[in-house]
Design a protein that fits this description.
This protein is mostly helical. It has a domain of 78 residues. The protein is rod-shaped and about 150 Å long.
């Protein structure tokens, strides 16, 4: 009789174990289905994002190429401005030499008694041209520094 009771208890325990195991496997199966659905959704979203990223990269490449073209066209403009600056430098040096000669000749031609105050307009013009020339040199130097920084 003890054998029979022991076998019945073992059978009941085994049946309970099987029932709980079936419930656990069923829950695991549902979790796996949800996981598969989530992975599918993530793959679809990833494909959408991938397309958007490719479009963004193409857009960025087009903008970069456009900027390079515009920078190349500006190089010729800066070259022209540099040539104009060199020409102005030449003109300014000629005007300086002429004004110096004028001042020397004016001083020599007037005697000490007849010396009068020099023409203020001429000196103002000479000072103005000299100032413009100095400003132009500073601008030119600044632009050259900016180019060097942009190259690196």
């Amino acid at each position: 009789m003890i054998w029979q009771i022991s076998i019945a208890i073992i059978a009941f325990a085994f049946a309970a174990l099987v029932v709980f195991l079936i419930r656990t496997l069923h829950l695991l199966q549902e979790s796996l289905k949800e996981t598969n659905q989530t992975i599918s959704n993530v793959q679809k979203d990833l494909n959408d994002v991938n397309g958007e990223v490719k479009g963004l990269i193409r857009n960025t490449n087009q903008i970069t190429m456009d900027l390079r073209q515009k920078m190349k066209s500006l190089d010729s403009l800066f070259g022209t401005v540099e040539n104009v600056g060199d020409a102005l430098e030449g003109v300014t040096s000629v005007v300086r030499r002429a004004s110096n000669r004028f001042a020397v000749n004016a001083n020599h031609s007037l005697s000490h008694e007849q010396k009068q105050e020099p023409d203020k307009k001429v000196y103002k013009a000479i000072n103005w041209i000299s100032s413009v020339y100095d400003i132009w040199k500073r601008v030119k130097l600044h632009r050259m520094n900016e180019r060097e920084v942009a190259r690196h």
